[in-house]
Amino acid sequence: MTTSPKPTKPKLIPKRQIKPDIVRKNLHKSIKSFTLQRTGCWNPTSKIKIDRCKPCIAKKNEGCRFINIRAFPTSAFESATSTTEYRENDIVLEDDPYFMDYDGPDPISKYKKLTTMTITKTNYRNIVLQKFCKAFTKMLQEDSQRVIEHGTLIRRRAPLDNVRHVCDMCLTSIFNLHYMCSVCALDLCVDCYDKNWEEKQNSRLAHCTYRRKHTKEHMVPVIKYKTATLEQFKEQSSKMDEDSKKDNTLYSNMTSTDTHLNESVSTKTTKDENIVANDEAFMSDENDFLIVDADALTLDSFRTCWGMGKPIMVKNVMDKDSQELWSPESFINKYSVEEKEDGSKKRKIKVKTMTEVINCENGFVHETSVENFFKEYINPTLRKGYKKGEPVVLKIKDWPPKHDFGEQFPDLYTDFMRILPVKEYCTVNGYFNLSNRLPIELLPPDLGPKMFIAYGSDQGEQSVGTTKLHCDMADAVNVMCHANKSDDCAAAIWDIFPYESMSTIRSFVKKIALEQNKKIIDPIHDQWLYLNDTLLERLEKEHGVKSWRLYQNPGDAVFIPAGCAHQVSNYHSAIKCAYDFVSPENVERCLDITRQFGCVRREDALQLKNTLLFAWSKLYSSD
Ligand SMILES: [Zn+2]
Ligand SMILES: [Zn+2]
Ligand SMILES: [Zn+2]
């Protein structure tokens, strides 16, 4: 038996402690002769080593957080001597760092101008701004209050491009004021900084470099934007908020057409056989929401209902051409074969396109051909387990995988964007979609479209293809493009709950978890429960909360307001396509949900606060 020598690890001896009081003291002092850090923390050619920031430790100088903010007295480099305290033969700066204010321009004006929005009607500008000025003012006030509290301790650090700047603890996006560790540049959002530090000592982020533990005193308060810039926005938005309170008619005048809403809702819709079951809900006062034919829908009628926080169903959004395009037969014709380079013969050959599918029952993933998947979609008797009475239920995972929808399926993309109702809200260029104002450099979220293709199972709510109760950060529109219907039942049944009932639902679901002995972290965000008829009845009886029930069939678009808990029961195999957006009406709710997601460490891809900042600056200065 041979033994190979163990590689010797570099000796890590606990480094000198940076004394918190010195960090804070240095924030008050100014020095004449200092060297500002202009490159990443990791300089392999230099013998002099400095503490590295988190990104530099992980990726070697990508997105360094100390550039242009950390400085050392110039004398420190001269007096630095070899020390065994760190790694042998390395020279370590003995001096504690200073942090400098970045005085460069705000990036807000720097980012490229966006493409023209679909509406440029001037009076919509104020309507949009007015819808979110209250939430925006509150957000800026909270921020500036902190900035004032910290006074001269604050340092400004330029925001980095092409990095989604998030709190290292909870993954929420950081808008302006936050806290940076003076040693490893860990970034904490305000909420995480405020949380109990005793508890934090147990988390994996408790550790700074070299066996140090993070303490509040190590954290430097940092801002990203010039205070004057944000003050100006705050003045603009609080004035608009005040004005709209003083004079409610100021803005409502512009929406006078809304009063005709009830007439504009087509009577044709009530004749539709699919709505019969829903007729009562539609007519009754307490449970009404807008069901409207695509031809009869106007922007103003949409805005009125949407402004009430209710879901909306738009029927018949697809014409004949669309129906054909989105059929499984068309998918087989178009997407089941692809051309591939034949390496040896240098010519293209045709091969079957493969895709990953998930077994809804057990979550297992396997590969199958697109052709087989859709053949079984059309004809359940071909599915595995059919003879035993348990046909396998599959869904396609992320199709197209890792590709841009528009690039992969240009026909489908164009058609989907064409058929979407109220494009002003739910398309990439929609004037009422705030999300598209976020500059490319800040890595805006992927809003879709996203396709969902799943086999149905006749068991309805018991079925594994069911989407359990949950809520999303963004508004969304979900179009059923095709369903393999064999009977008159609705292809999918949606239960959407009013946003106001969220806390009631949360405690109800907690109660159910207790009864079922189920361990949960968050009653809604865990997405673990489908409320069947019995539970829905209990929720109404015990708490007076009732859902809006929507019956979705091919050609129907369902609009789900952000933050509304919802669940879907799928009865038939269906192809659905969805698009996310951020409407000004639901900004406050979005902010709320974002905060909740922070508690369960879900990434805040929407970057809502940054979105608001850029939406405000773009819209306010437009005319
Ligand atoms: Zn660095
Ligand atoms: Zn945080
Ligand atoms: Zn640290």
TrEMBL record:
Gene3D superfamilies: Cupin
GO terms of biological process kind: regulation of transcription by RNA polymerase II
InterPro entries hit by this protein: JmjC_dom, LSDs-like
Annotated compartments: Nucleus
Main subcellular location of this protein, as a coarse class: nucleus
The UniProt record lists the keyword Repeat: no
Keyword list, A-Z: Metal-binding, Nucleus
Cellular component, GO annotation: chromatin; histone deacetylase complex
GO terms, molecular function: chromatin DNA binding; histone H3K9 demethylase activity; metal ion binding; transcription coregulator activity
Coiled-coil spans in chain: none
Name by which UniProt lists this protein: JmjC domain-containing protein
Organism in which the protein naturally occurs: Circinella minor
